[in-house]
Design brief:
Number of domains: 1
Oligomer: single chain
Largest sheet: 4 strands, antiparallel
Shape: elongated
Strand content: 5-15%
Structural class: alpha+beta
Helix content: 25-40%
Strand order of the largest sheet: 3-5-6-7
Mean pLDDT: 80
Length: 308
């Protein structure tokens, strides 16, 4: 004969009687819950994993933006090659019609890109009047001028100490120091016109270009070593020997550059320069694997007076 199952009862917090089976389930649930110590251990493990992964993720992101910047330069390099092939003088880069009238048109930024601010907002520097845009974009409506923008363009640092040289306050006006170079000038990448801004050379050679600007491609001694474009922040390092300059890609004194043979890669710049005031009055600018000048080819006379 089967006997009925008897449930032992106990009182809960309200005084009501509960079967033991229900109380046992409640006890089992309480025992399976996380304790505070166990939660802290889990949080600590996750924090450790994040501490390990975040720098790697940041590094991967920086590498991605660096590669995007290099891709931009290669695309611009292809357009420069097309321009040079079409130009009757085989010039290495666009030359503004006003270039031989006013020094304002001496090639730094007006070769291509978007409109900037200040002087770079002038009608002559609007996108439709920047010659290289015609080779990169079929029409102004479909133009993506971000091709001229380095993704990590943080502008150009202003150097406060008198011993350092601020290379171009005219184009990167102090009023626009909070802007990126792309916002200020319409392009992050500065053309290598390599002229004596410091007036250290004899007066005659202060009006000469020592680099590829205003020069036929056939008059460049070694296109594989000659820089035609570089991130503008490289100029700060170029003109200030020994200065630690933070690059736009997380490495000091390392900058993306485009060579005349179409390559785009990193160059290391720490104010490499040398005066050669002999027969050609040259001012050399060279570093490991790159050159800004075209020595021993003669310098190119710039007709407008500086500031004219």
């Amino acid at each position: 004969m089967n006997r009925p199952v008897k449930f032992q009862q106990h009182a809960d917090s309200t005084g009501q009687m509960l079967p033991q089976m229900r109380a046992g389930r409640s006890l089992e649930w309480r025992r399976s819950a996380f304790t505070i110590i166990e939660l802290l251990v889990v949080i600590g493990i996750f924090s450790l994993i994040l501490a390990v992964l975040l720098p790697a993720l940041a590094s991967a992101r920086a590498e991605g933006t660096k590669l995007k910047c290099l891709a931009n330069l290669r695309s611009i390099g292809q357009a420069l090659a097309m321009y040079s092939g079409d130009d009757t003088r085989n010039m290495t880069s666009p030359v503004h019609p006003m270039a031989e009238i006013r020094w304002l048109y001496d090639g730094e930024y007006e070769y291509g890109g978007n409109a900037g601010v200040g002087v770079m907002r002038h009608v002559d520097f609007l996108p439709e009047n920047r010659l290289l845009n015609r080779y990169l974009f079929s029409s102004g409506a479909s133009a993506d001028y971000n091709l001229y923008r380095c993704p990590t363009d943080r502008g150009v640092p202003k150097l406060e100490e008198p011993r350092w040289f601020n290379f171009e306050p005219f184009f990167i006006d102090p009023r626009y120091a909070h802007l990126s170079v792309y916002q200020a000038a319409g392009t992050s990448y500065r053309l290598n016109n390599h002229i004596d801004f410091t007036r250290r050379l004899p007066t005659y050679y202060q009006q000469h270009f020592f680099g590829p600007y205003l020069r036929s491609l056939t008059r460049v001694p070694d296109p594989t070593l000659t820089v035609i474009l570089a991130e503008t922040v490289a100029e700060v390092a170029k003109w200030n020997a020994g200065l630690h300059v933070d690059g736009w890609h997380r490495k000091a004194n390392n900058f993306n550059a485009l060579f005349l043979d179409g390559r785009a890669e990193i160059i290391h710049v720490t104010g490499h320069h040398e005066f050669r005031t002999g027969e050609n009055g040259y001012w050399l600018r060279r570093g490991p694997g790159w050159t800004m000048d075209c020595y021993p080819a003669p310098p190119i006379l710039d007709l407008p007076n500086r500031g004219g």
